[in-house]
Design brief:
The protein starts with 7 loop residues before the first strand and ends in a 10-residue tail after the last helix. It has a 7-stranded antiparallel sheet with strand order 1-7-6-5-4-3-2, covered by helices on one side. Helix 1 packs across helix 2 and helix 3 crosses helix 4. By secondary structure, it is α+β, with helices and mostly antiparallel strands. The protein contains 4 helices and 7 strands; from the N terminus they run E-H-H-E-E-E-E-E-E-H-H.
Length: 158
């Protein structure tokens, strides 16, 4: 196992929608805030600017009433193939992690892969054990699939 492999989580899914449509769901806040997050979560956006160096500043509302401050900055955007980002609680979060999302045509659908690398193995393990990051990632991609194929989640705010 490489040093990176022990710090990463990879989640993927095939979605029955064209790549451009799936990519768009990641690039426009009116879409993102309708599906982002694991099951039972909703999102309130405070700022959103989709460009390299731009920021998505938002709050995820957990089903138990807990609010999670979230911050994403895009580090690379290659439409409609790839998005790279840095994700944490704020711009100066020392535990922020990096994710690369790839969108590949797969028949008439899209194979999306979300590869996340944490700063340390310990932070990865905490994300898996405490925050159920693997299942949460799968649920997030499930919500994306439901959204782009026509089943819209409710409870999100833009």
């Amino acid at each position: 196992m490489s040093a990176t492999a022990e710090r990463e989580i990879v989640v993927s899914r095939v979605i029955d929608a064209p790549r451009e449509r799936v990519f768009e769901a990641f690039t426009e806040v009116r879409h993102l805030s309708r599906w982002w997050g694991p099951e039972g979560f909703s999102t309130t956006t405070r700022a959103f600017e989709f460009r390299v160096g731009g920021v998505w500043d938002f709050v995820m509302h957990g089903p138990d009433g807990t609010d999670y401050q979230e911050w994403i900055s895009w580090t690379r955007i290659d439409p409609p193939e790839r998005i790279a980002l840095r994700h944490g609680e704020s711009a100066d979060d020392p535990n922020a992690f990096e994710s690369v999302l790839t969108f590949a045509s797969d028949g008439g659908g899209t194979r999306i892969e979300m590869r996340t690398v944490f700063p340390t193995r310990e932070l990865r393990e905490e994300a898996v054990e405490r925050y159920h990051a693997i299942e949460g990632g799968r649920q997030t991609l499930g919500n994306l699939a439901a959204y782009v194929t026509g089943t819209v989640r409710t409870g999100a705010e833009g």
